[in-house]
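Morning run. Coffee first, then this:
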Amino acid sequence: MIFPRLAIFVLSYFIGSISPGAFFAWLKGIDITKQGSGSSGATNTARSLGWKYFVLVFLIDCLKAFLFLFFLTQKNFPLAEQYCAAIGLLLGNVSSLWLQFRGGKGVATTIGILLALYPHSLFILIPIWLLFYLITRTIGIASSGAFVGLCISTLNLFATQPLLAGLMFFIGALGIYRHIDNMKRYLYVAKV
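And here it is:
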């Protein structure tokens, strides 16, 4: 049992490590890790290459997570393997092997994971994201608010689906951690 889970985790990590943002930047002779926030995610790619790349990078990061997990669910892989894959995809995105263990913030990958494994949560998280964005006009803060919402919204799952609850709480906590710099910058600007 351990070997299949490990194999799926490693494969999903490599899939998650594929960075469309870094690839498109490389095509233009740009090192995305030295631009803006240094993130290879959709927002920083858009700042570096133009906003049309936001949609492209976001969709690829989201779809690669969703399609791999959808494949596992359709082939009736056990939940433990699916959850290992979700963790691998996310860790690959935020800490890519190809980018010297740098990467994105995990937002698009998280949405792909949620679409495949816990789609009902998006009915809560999208309004939270929109509310925070309307208040702050900052994508990073809106994403932070949604990750906090993910942690809170999964607390009721611990009694009935502890593995899923643990996975979602991990995803939310990692998302909050990845956005700490955004929160610090926002609070600093707000004080000034």
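Residues 52-74 form the longest helix (23 residues). Good start to the day.
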